[in-house]
Amino acid sequence: MRVLLAVLAGKIVAWLVRFLKRGRGSSLPGLVALKIHPRLLSHFVRQVRRGVVMVTGTNGKTTTNNMLARMVADAGLRAVVNAEGANLVTGIATAFIRAASWRGRIFCDYALLEVDEATFPRAAAQVRPGAVVVTNFFRDQLDRYGELDRTVALIRDALADLENVRLILNADDPLVAQLAATGHAATFYGLGRHAEVSPTSTAAREGRFCPFCGHALTYDYYHYSQLGNFRCPSCGFSRPRAQVEGEGVFAGARYSRCRLRYPGGTQELVLGQPGLYNLYNALAAFAAGLFLGLDPARMAGSLSSYLPATGRMERFRCGEKPVLLNLVKNPTGFNEGLRALLHLDPPVDLLIALNDNDADGRDVSWIWDVDFEMLEGMQERINLIFCTGQRGEEMAVRLKYAGVPLGKIVTEGRMEEAVRGVLRASGSSACLLATYTALWPVERILCRYAQRERAPEGLPSLS
Amino acid sequence: MPRESVLLKVCHLYPDLLNLYGDRGNVMAFVRRCRWRGIGVEVVAVDLGDEVDFREMDFLFLGGGSDREQGLMARDLVRRRECLREAIEDGLVVLAICGGYQLLGRYYRSADGRTIPGLDLLDFYTEAGASRLIGNVAVEVVIEGERVKVTGFENHAGRTYLGRIAPFGRVLAGHGNNGRDGTEGARYKNVFCSYLHGPLLPKNPRLTDHLISLALRRRGLPAELTPLDDGLEAAASEVMLRRLLGPGKA
Ligand SMILES: [Zn+2]
Prior knowledge:
The complex is a heterodimer of chains A (about 475) and B (about 250). With about 475 residues, chain A is α/β, with parallel strands linked by helices. Helix content of chain A is about 35%, strand content about 20%. Chain B has helices spanning about 25-35, 65-80, 80-90, 100-105, 200-205, 205-220, 230-245, and strands at about 5-15, 40-45, 60, 95, 105-110, 115, 125-145, 145-160, 170-175, 185, 185-190, 190-195. In chain B, helix 1 crosses helix 6 (about 205-220). Chains A and B meet through helix 13 of A and helix 1, strand 7 and helix 7 of B. Zinc ion (ZN) binds near residues 210, 212, 213, 235 and 237 of chain A.
């Protein structure tokens, strides 16, 4: 009875939200339903036929989960998937309510749930997932989570409390790889050595120390941040062998590719998105798909035609000018976003929209951990940098102290003016970087002046 | 007035270990504002176990870290205490933030009642509180006889209580040392302590310049500085002051 009431209330709220066009409605229905029936998630999860996969970690949750959802759908299976970024318990409940009948029945093979790190312990206890994918751990929104060590410890404890769970772990991130010590069966995924590995790490230094004995880790090479071929000289903890490994990696301006080696074969993988971190997301999704028993060749095909969600390196065109839109939410992701500038036609005009609402992180000091100093070395590639958002002025200060000449910095509080400014500026291409709550307004304005590029055209053939 | 011949030595303690909340922005600001004026600067990064003589330094920056990192740093600093004390008494310019601030005091009493001794260089102590004090802060600081509004972000569980020592400033908005007595940070000779990260120096150029002047003066050099264009810093500070104090108070 209580279930029926909760689902009904949730559905009415969902309908009202849509009718009134208020917000995105991706968590309010769940919030209301959970108030009526706090254990609603367990009710839904029991009905999922084959199992629940949870995806957590700092970066790449949304993309990894969406890639997995795409592969599951292409295999002709049904899945409940929570909407982009709605990764708290309320967002997960909303996804189930949307998929459920009025009587609270769910007909699906899988539930694929992207879960916020801080929410993971509570969500996992209710959902009892069959597999957990952990992408990476970077410093993110410190004022909300406390310190990274604590976040990792909370997830480790939550995993230890689960039974019969398969872990799918990033072998290259020591903070993630250590989770195998919880004793569960684990599949590791990672990248092999490639041309762009670095002998040093330039990013903020998370996870520099061995999670087991505290000794400083040594590296043969880094992919980025603390991801690489690590080893603890003191206790011997080292990068585990990856069952799913990307070899012959190429990460270009418009696409990235690698050869996927897995137990039983290899597949060529081409992604319509740039960057090593997108390859990581694809490897994570592929490893999870293997565990679910999906066909490897078909999975590679699904990944190659996968289109990114809003603001994940999305491509637009404004007249002749190519425009890139990207969400930035922590130093590591921001560094990757800046590195994308190297692949755009110079000179590039840049827009940075920095907000400080709860979802962005109220403390904007993290922008001082972003390696804006790299802009000093690519000055001739950069035309103007527009700073906007609630803390646009602070962003401008950051750029000044990174050595960007004052003449290149434009502070424009009105977002509409800033977006129009960057599109109109004289550069050959434009790049727009926005924090979470700034992304939607920037995208809305951008859509008025530019066309979204839909098909991942220009990909090299696999033959 | 180019002074390339001058070489200020900036000591960045444990830059890899203590790298929270953009702390390194404080060192960047000090260095940039010297170089923009033609004052030579050299940054000396000191890691655990490295040798350093603080008396030869002109500016020392000490940031904060997580509990474990804080422990490592405390152990390393204890054996350098005497050298640091002499340098401070001799007028070394120091900026200590958050955990670095707490460490200079008498002790830190943790939530489970353990007392962790500090370096006991400045007269204050810190006790763990039940909740973290988090948010944007505005503080009024007196710099060379003039009242200046300084902004930043605080995030600390410790409540610090000052003994016979002056505060860094007076809280206009936010929690400050302990959320009760309206004080923020501590000041002794040329040592400036604060809970404000965010980071502090790039957002508050008047304070940065004051630290540079003090460092020059200690070396017996002319301390007046060429004015710089601080329009961006002023605009950023105004945004926060308007938000915290209301319009017209910035
Ligand atoms: Zn170890």
